[in-house]
């Protein structure tokens, strides 16, 4: 079974796996409450998968201080 998006593609956008997990889990919690999706026609039906698709599409970024 191939998971989409792949970890390699995601790490092109966010280098740290820890940061990737943290960002996607926070976004998944937001999606649970708001259902305000930033990508059209997501492949995943789970919130974490949709959050990862948003990262891959370049819709989510890390806030820089």
UniProtKB/TrEMBL annotation:
InterPro entries: DNA-dir_RNA_pol_omega, Pol_omega/Rpo6/RPB6, RPB6/omega-like_sf. Gene3D superfamilies: 3.90.940.10. Its EC number is 2.7.7.6. Keywords: DNA-directed RNA polymerase, Nucleotidyltransferase, Transcription, Transferase. It catalyses: RNA(n) + a ribonucleoside 5'-triphosphate = RNA(n+1) + diphosphate. GO terms for cellular component: DNA-directed RNA polymerase complex. It comes from the Bacteria. GO terms for molecular function: DNA binding; DNA-directed RNA polymerase activity. GO terms for biological process: DNA-templated transcription. Pfam families: RNA_pol_Rpb6. SUPFAM superfamilies: RPB6/omega subunit-like. The keyword Transferase applies. The RNAP catalytic core consists of 2 alpha, 1 beta, 1 beta' and 1 omega subunit. When a sigma factor is associated with the core the holoenzyme is formed, which can initiate transcription. HAMAP family: RNApol_bact_RpoZ. PANTHER family: DNA-DIRECTED RNA POLYMERASE SUBUNIT OMEGA. Belongs to the RNA polymerase subunit omega family. Promotes RNA polymerase assembly. Latches the N- and C-terminal regions of the beta' subunit thereby facilitating its interaction with the beta and alpha subunits. This is DNA-directed RNA polymerase subunit omega. The gene is rpoZ.
